[in-house]
Amino acid sequence: MRFLNRHVADQHEYLELQFRDGHKEHQRGPLALFMDPCTHISMETKTAYKLAANEALVVYREEERAPVAEIETPAPTAAATAADTATKPQMAERIGTPGTVQRRIVRGPAVFIPAAHEWVHTFSWHGTVSANGKGSKTGSLGDQKVPHALKFQTLRTQPDQMYVSVQNVRTTDDAQITVHLMLFFELSDIETMLNATNDPIGDFINAVSADVMTFGASNTYESMMQRTALLSDAASFPILKGRMAQTGFELGKIVYRGYVTSDSLQAMHDESIAKRTKLKLEADTRHMELEQAQHELQCKSERSRAECSLAEAELRHRLEMLELEGAQARKARDDDHEQRLKHDAALETALQQAQRGRNDEETRRDGALKELGVDLTQYLCVVGQRQPDHMTHIKLDTEKGASAPALHLDLNDGSKTIAKA
């Protein structure tokens, strides 16, 4: 009597059952079964394959075999002993026709459980062995890929990348360097890859090594250092592009990540770089000083032109102000002259009107005197004899034969009194 082992599988697991009659079954969970040693050879719980949207599995399956033919074994020869004949009865041999194997690709997203007659292909590619012993397509700078370091079953169809270090690249002047690159690629056709290669990573490493070797063989050390930008151009890698196309991959781009050479050559190169850098810095310094001097001279010239322009503007403004002041003065004099003329004209008009008034008054007076019987001719003659000075002449006529009268006359002109008899 013995206790039976109970095996349990959840919804993402399945039980692999190996029966004693030779057939195998896969039963998907959730379920629980007891292993019967009389029926089962083994019973194992396995995890289903969980595929993301950019993952795939390569699955093989064997189709059903043809019917089994039975062939009778020949009778034992006379040399056989009776005991052998008694203990070894005649047996029939079973001869089966080999079945055909089909391949299919299961793409995600999916949860895949293989059937009992199916198996998942395991890939073995070049990779970088890390510290934990696991392989990886990518690696640190200088890591080298080794065969069969990367073992996996799930393919990634998304864009991927890897580091490649091409060693022992020789130039035409026999310099030896190691070139570090980074490749970006994408698996576009799984069927083409399965039919064309067992290790595409190894093919890519060999192809890129051939392209870099060809590039190095066509350059000297100095020219190669000057043309390293071409190592980031996909057109410089025709062998790699062709091999990727043959294996169902697409080359995205290539990034040049630097190089490593021997210590002595690197020291010479570093010394040369230091000298060139020093000369370049000195040349740049002189150039900057010359540019600074030219800039200062240009600033002085611009400042001088600005000062001249400012002085010219000030002089022009002063002349304009003087001209404006002169114009204002002339206008003021013209206005004063015009005003004086107006005043003189008004004064003359007033004098003429006053004279006209006096003339009219004299005419009226003369008319009145004429009406009174005064001899105007004699009157005017007497009046016309007056001298235009401060002396006043008074003439008194007496009749003939009369004695002269005694007269006393006082005249006051405002400043003095004149008395004459």
List keywords for this structure.
single chain, disordered C terminus, elongated, alpha+beta, 421 residues
Can you give a write-up of this model?
The chain has 421 residues and is of the alpha+beta class. It has a domain of 143 residues: Tetrahydropterin Synthase, Chain A (2-Layer Sandwich). It contains seven helices and 21 strands. The strands form eight sheets. Strands 7, 10, 12 and 16 form a four-stranded antiparallel sheet that branches. It has a three-stranded antiparallel sheet with strand order 3-2-5, with no helix packed on it. Helix 3 packs antiparallel against helix 5. The C terminus is likely disordered.
Layout of helices and strands:
Blueprint: E1 6-9, E2 13-19, E3 24-28, E4 31-34, E5 40-47, E6 49-51, E7 55-62, E8 69-72, H1 82-87, E9 92-95, E10 101-107, E11 110-112, E12 118-120, E13 123-129, E14 135-136, E15 146-152, E16 155-156, E17 160-170, E18 176-187, H2 190-196, H3 200-217, H4 221-226, H5 238-246, E19 249-261, H6 263-371, H7 376-384, E20 409-412, E21 417-420
Antiparallel strand pairs: 1-4, 2-3, 2-5, 6-11, 7-10, 7-12, 7-16, 8-9, 13-14, 13-15, 17-18, 18-19, 20-21
Helix pairs in contact: 3-5
CATH architecture verdict of the domain at 122-264? 2-Layer Sandwich
Helix and strand string, N-terminal first?
EEEEEEEEHEEEEEEEEEEHHHHEHHEE
Strand residues, percent: 25-35%
Tell me, briefly, the overall form. elongated
Structural class: alpha+beta
Could you tell me the CATH topology label of the domain at 122-264: Tetrahydropterin Synthase, Chain A
Biggest sheet descriptor: 4 strands, antiparallel
